Amino acid sequence: MRILVYDVAADSGGAVTVLKSFYEEFCRDTENEYVFVLSVFELPDTEHIRVLNYPWVKKSPFHRLYFDHVRAHRLVKEYQIDQVLSLQNIELPHAGVPQTVYEHNALPFSEYRFKLQESFRLWFTQQILGRLMKRSIRSAEKVLVQTGWMKQEIVRQCRISEDKVEVKFPPVDLPKEQTCRLNREQPVFLYPANASIYKNHRTLLKACELLQGQGYTRYQVIWTVTGEENDKIRALRKESEEKNLPVVFRGVLSKEELFALYSSSVLVFPSYIETIGLPLLEAKAAGTWILAADCLYARDMVGDYEKAEFFEPFSEKELCRGMKRFLDMKNDIY
Q: How, if at all, do strands 290-293 and 266-269 pair?
């Protein structure tokens, strides 16, 4: 069988990690032939894998649209493809052969629904692109997802058979279990997240304000943003500085720095939209205490973890109560 793997979107980060994991898996499958159709990210050819790169796809949305709807399905005919694996959340248009779709965008299936005035991009992804994704899922022969909660929601929302959806967890690098200690003189709460609106930094900041109002000041909150990423994050940094809150804007941490921090902090994770929520798995592997937003993804990842506690994602009062329990502890070993 000759399979076309379509992923012109992948150029960095998690998308490339997923792409490379499939490539490595297919390198071991010598019974089939593969044609990888990519844009700028390069992979070597093998005896049974051919890699085609079209970097001009990245020039503009128009170039991408043209490639998806005109050029790509010609490749299906040119290379006599029997099946398509799309790693881009949606089927390859006009392919004319059975397709498997790898669905890794959580936005259309999450509990929280964005309003247009909150974020046009996120609203558009949920309401417009989401409908196209769901239509694609219904017509695909098979659907691959990263997590159990995604499978359940896709089956429910798209009204398809469970047998059609397979959970294929991506490769992740996890820390080894550690002895976790909090400094009782100045406990640390860690939130490793980017500056996206749904990461919900504001709820954590408001919880810090409540703690300050109750006389709690001897602790530290570490964020992996600089405070300059966008207007909302800049506003949070200004508010934190004006109110003298113990929030440290560290910026991006190396994997080694992050894994080391798990041994001396409590992971706070108020994000209300994730596919996996990788820090939850990392903290669980390290043996770290976790305060997580009570969302489907978090319950799926650490719902059975005895050191995980959950709070309503928009309730700074619940998060404040959770943080106080650690601040009130008298021992430095938990």
A: parallel
